[in-house]
Amino acid sequence: MGFETAVAGGVLRLRRPDTRWLSTGWDGGFADAPAAYNVSVPEGWERTDLDAYVADRLADAGFAGPGGDPTAPALLTGVDMRHARVARSGPVVAVATAGVSNPAALPMDAEGREEPTGESVAGEGPERPGRGTVNVLVATTRRLDDGALANLVAVAAEAKAATLLATTGFPGTTTDAVVAGSARDGDPAAFSGSATTVGGASRACVRDAVRASLNSRYAAGDATVPDSVADAEHGVVTDRETEVTRP
């Protein structure tokens, strides 16, 4: 049985019964649940009671009863779900919503650093879903142990960063998040690295889903990709110095 996607009321659901999930988002970690969600929030959204908010949104979308599904991972984003895109390959599916109004730049040398310098161009603030959050949900019908599932998060994040760097010049935004899922009743896969069937398919699916979502959001001209962090609505440049030594 594969993973099914559905969108209603500004909420995207990625569903398959008997799935193990690992989320890097709000209230994340490991969870056993029949679905994972990506929830679009309105501009100017300021709610802090996230448990209640997500529960209400899932119920309003018809995806859960009163109280929502407290075990299901859910990501929040300012990107409208009309820009969500799905990519499938072999035993893997990836879903992405992508925008870059709050880019996070990581210059590799002093000449690449922007002015003004400092960790944050837009100022420090809570990690709330911005208009440019890049959310990725990736799942496989193969059964992974917890270590391989954690590695799948890393594989997806690497593919997301590579895609964003190639298409926007930034490796990510200040609020990116990944949810990875594995079928608990699937055929076992010992590893999920880039050279494996699961890892290779995940890299390709994340690349294509993120790229397609970016194209949807920006090709129409409703928004533009900033040329730099200084030109963005929000964003950070990580330009602090470190002390590097031998162990």
How do the strands and helices of this protein lay out in sequence?
Layout: E1 4-8, E2 11-23, E3 29-40, H1 50-60, E4 74-77, E5 85-89, E6 92-97, E7 104-105, E8 135-140, H2 146-168, E9 177-183, H3 197-219, E10 236-237
Parallel strand pairs: 3-4, 7-10, 8-9
Antiparallel strand pairs: 1-2, 2-3, 2-9, 5-6, 6-8
Overall body shape:
globular
Q: State the helix count.
A: 3
Which segments are poorly predicted (pLDDT under 50) over 5 or more consecutive residues? 112-126
Return Rg in Å.
Answer: 18 Å
Averaged pLDDT, please?
A: 89
- The helix/strand series, from N terminus to C terminus, equals EEEHEEEEEHEHE
- Biggest sheet statistics: 8 strands, mixed
| Beta-strand segment tally | 10
Q: Report the structural category.
A: alpha/beta
Distance between the termini: 48 Å
Which percent bin holds the helix content? 10-25%
Portion in beta strands: 25-35%
